[in-house]
């Protein structure tokens, strides 16, 4: 709404092009290992966009602390295909020592790569649809929804760990070889995965942006600001919420698939309570909830910080990361992108009294 | 006495369980009593770890994810007190008192940590409850865990249970461990003292006033600032007590908090945020159902079932067991 | 009503707080920039050691194991969980490995070069293990990695070390069914711990078994083997229970155990769960005289956390105890205590981590290089006087020959040996030698 030049810079093409430019030149500057890491962070960023759609000021702060499972479902779909590809049709080793002799029914669709990839988006979406439909129809909101999403994480993770014969248990799925005949760990394949990730990140970003900039987005903002008023106006907020929830789960599934391709392993530790909360931290720290660009910055920044700290100070990195989290959350309510915004505002509002400024930052 | 209990060496499937309880009269009764006792015992543990959260989360709306680390702090305090006793008290009859001493100490120290946390962090986040979740989880939780690791070392430490709590009460062929009975008693004592404080003292009345209508309370001259701090401290203190009690049953290590935190939140949410007695019902409900599920199936499926039940329950009562109805909409 | 209070607070928030915020923005910006600079510096430093890495030669680069013959140190990676739930067990192994490196360095190093440990934190998260292993091999070009504890962490690192043709020394007993050409397994294979333990129990303690384990790959696989063995011996399995990792309430499980009244509980629980299980077992009135528990994941270090009074009299099966009577052990325990304090205890995985470093050093000395393929070749049949006795690397599967020891927990937290095998037993990760395990090993046939 404020048409300062800085605001334009932030919200318009310049900053996006800058980011994508950096992503374009990255393969030339980074070693294979670092590029692989960046690719992983970008997969996280995709998920963060989905989470931002859901949480970031569009649906009245539906905070899901359970997106790890959607990420995980997508990742497992991809991993199941890769595992079957690696064993060459034989049943995976963990099934054998769990006493199974033939491929269980639910693994059969994953012999086909296209089907596996489709399922990697569809399964999370379907699960999210059912949960979202029930939950939003029953008008469970706020912190109750948040806790409910955690309960779901516990259910899914416990099931995944408990059915070792189907999922590989705690170890998860790893030791993959090929995708469409390409060797998955080869440097060139990994670079290709990086490009695919960048492309999908861009696509998801622009799609989400289109969605929220249009009429649909306006309804969402309406729901955020006054759910009951929208209801009285004839909209069905729970349908909108369910849609966004389902969409963000599908995006999470997509991110999960890209994660598996680049990291080469998926295990329940990646979908449990801790990573699910971390995912929200990316969005919060990136800030500008609802900007869609903030979460990208947040996901890359937090993970870079985590990796950087843990490599430099393996014994004490948790201190640094913890302090960083606290500082950002407390002093940058709008996250890192909030820094830019604050700066703009201050220049703009030099003569405006404090209280108005503060009030604005509340909403 | 153990052989008395042994019935038949066969797998205890769901059907068998029902058959036993139906046909075998006394034996079935024993099993039912034992399962019920185990359920109540688990419920009391859940209640103890959730009481503090019922205050900080239920009353104050602060989502303190470092709650588990306060439990950890309570457990380590017990360990430290025991070491002090080892060094300065001869191993005579007074030695066991360390456990009794560590309960109030845990209360005070955890409350102190709570005050520190409130002043440095939570205070800035009252207006942003979800941010308090992120800061306490990602930040405070990590820092406290690492601090414990730096001070006490990464491996678990051991606390020797006081001798007066070893063994159990024998009723017929059943044994009710004293440690479990003690925790049940402790949970009840904590509950009563919290109830007494909030509903029977002037200070508690002020807390309730602030939580119900902050502006009005302020207008009447209540220092909301002080009340916030105190309430958070009380919540944290009782969490410390829970940590102290848990040394009787489980490990004492830097990450033990993480195994209790989710359970604690479930209890409060099922009970209804803001309802102290909802938490009681939530705790015993979850405890008893969890034990029955686990007995009939196994621990993994039992866990899945109980959390599915919680999800289903919230669909039915979206604001928990005890709801506050109001006519306001937005 | 909460909404109102937010607004109230915000209006009250005056200029002072705003200024304070601004200060902190500055601080954070500073922190960020310094971090970015530091990060790139670290990267540069890491990259400085190696030739310019382009996409094409990166992989071949690593296959050659490029750290040899450059500089006067040899980098070795140490990769254990220093944070998260597994840190309770893994930090001590890391310490033992660092002790071994220090001792080797004091005695002149390997190939005349000092060893330089590169420490990373696996953070109890398996994908992190994979990432850090990759980092150690690709960025730091370490000659070998010592690391891992859980089977899951090993399985996560396996494709990485195979892909980059690195080396991994894995120090913990495990479920077998694996023999990677790039991993040396210095812990026990199932036939060096579980199988003899079951035999011993059948001979000495009775034949009705209750199997209790955490719900993950080691207990499930181990129990599959145990069940096959017990069935072949005609023994009885009266119950089998798995609890989720981190489970804290064992009342119900104990109730089931009591109603089944077995002779023996074969315990494959992991980590914290052991503490809860043993404490609650004792409270429920079950002592080692009623039902004996044999554990395969409880060593001296874990006993400290459980409390010796609680677990006293129960049994363990390992290859090494702090009390093991060998000259090498006397020295090891003394050195370990000198380094990490009088209260520190040694245990089987700690010892396996320790002698793993020596085995690698010996193999490198014999090969005359740190190049992976040559080291692997040289390692075949290498022997070392480890604290648990003489260990020999089996050339076929890169496990080691070890002596099996059944022990009983004493009131001081030490374990006293009740029985040990006559000689170091040949490792057999796939249990090929056993008739009853035919189905198991056959189903895994390549």
UniProtKB/TrEMBL annotation, chain A:
NCBIfam families: urea_trans_UrtC (TIGR03408). GO terms for cellular component: plasma membrane. Pfam families: BPD_transp_2. This is Urea ABC transporter. One of its GO terms (molecular function) is branched-chain amino acid transmembrane transporter activity. It is found in: Cell membrane. It comes from the Bacteria. It is a multi-pass membrane protein. The chain crosses the membrane at residues 14-30, 37-58, 64-82, 116-136, 143-162, 192-212, 239-259, 316-340. Keywords: Cell membrane, Membrane, Transmembrane, Transmembrane helix.
From TrEMBL, chain B:
Keywords: Amino-acid transport, Cell membrane, Membrane, Transmembrane, Transmembrane helix, Transport. One of its GO terms (biological process) is amino acid transport. It is found in: Cell membrane. One of its GO terms (cellular component) is plasma membrane. It is a multi-pass membrane protein. Its main location: membrane. Belongs to the binding-protein-dependent transport system permease family. LivHM subfamily. This is Urea ABC transporter.
TrEMBL record, chain C:
Residues 46-70 are annotated as: Disordered. InterPro entries: ABC_urea-bd_UrtA, Peripla_BP_I. Transmembrane segments: none annotated. It holds the Pfam family Peripla_BP_5. SUPFAM superfamilies: Periplasmic binding protein-like I. This is Urea ABC transporter.
